[in-house]
Amino acid sequence: LLEIMLKDAAFLAQRDAQWESKRRLRAGKTEIEPLYTMQHAEEALALCVGLSYGHRQQVADGIEICYRDAGHILGSAIVELFITEAGVTKKLAFSGDLGNSCAAMLRDPEIIEQADVLLLESTYGNHDHRSMEETLEEFAAIIAQSSENGGNILIPAFAVGRTQEIIFRLGELYQQGKLNHQAAYLDSPMAIAATEVYHRYQNVFNREDSATLRKANSSNLQAFLPVLRYSRSTEESMALNRIQAGAIIIAGSGMCNGGRIRHHFKHNLWRRSAHVIMVGFQPIGTPGRALVDGAKTFRIGGDEIVVKAKIHTLGGFSAHAGQTQLINWVQGFKKKQPRIYLIHGEPAAKTALREALSRQGWRADVPVQGASITI
User: Fold this and answer.
1) CA distance 146 to 169
2) Which pTM value belongs to this model?
3) Which of 5, 9, 40, 34 is nearest to 19 (CA)?
């Protein structure tokens, strides 16, 4: 997955720098360089070494690391850092992005029982997600409604993680006989590449969903959802715009600020029969958030598209642990309480999580930028 994402980011950085340089030259300004290039990405990838979960590896004198399954996306890891100095070993644990225990295919975040210092993410430290059962019921109802009124369904989705979850959930509906759409299209070369990586690493799927795939005699997600089609080329993507009904189209970007989903919006947002399902967080200021907040029009290039499609938001598909899940994971530390520092979250989320942990008898601090921590 790292190779897919790093090369894609390098390509975009080079392209954006090229576009910006042309604009600057016309204004009599100097050109700019991309943050990094494809060559830089390839050089970095050549230095990467893969480690299995649970393997303790020395990386420098007196420093060892061990990765544990974080359950966020395929291959995501909690990091245990062992530091030995003057014969004494201390351990720092870094949660990374902890996964939502209700997510499809992935295992729950692995429990860590001991650490001296814990750096804990707090992305959703101030609330819990809607239950997965309610989310899937609404998802199935939207699918059924679209089938009845004959419109297309557009699903903006992140290429890694969210897309594969949506394919699995659509596969469940198909296997239950609840998916009447003629075809589902994955219209994102990056998401297609990521999905194929998921196919190769089913050994790290959770037991329940692995059993579901075996029961359906499905060797991969595409076999689990037989109506799934890949749209790799630009021509294949453009051909989807001729479909007026009966299709489910999954495309990036997840926040609707770029990618092929915008072209599908141009051909579907103005249709009353169309549905848009938001399955990822939409930050303030993004085009996706504007749709969620009830925008009447949507600008694509020089065109102003009226929004008549039905907009749905399904928050239960989050790949991050909610507040209760974060607290439950922290309570896995048995031997003694580590010093906890809350990171990776908005100020309100950090404050809320600190207060919630305090009510459970756990002390947590919110570090300020530039602060140092003695391990």
Assistant:
1) 16
2) 0.90
3) 34
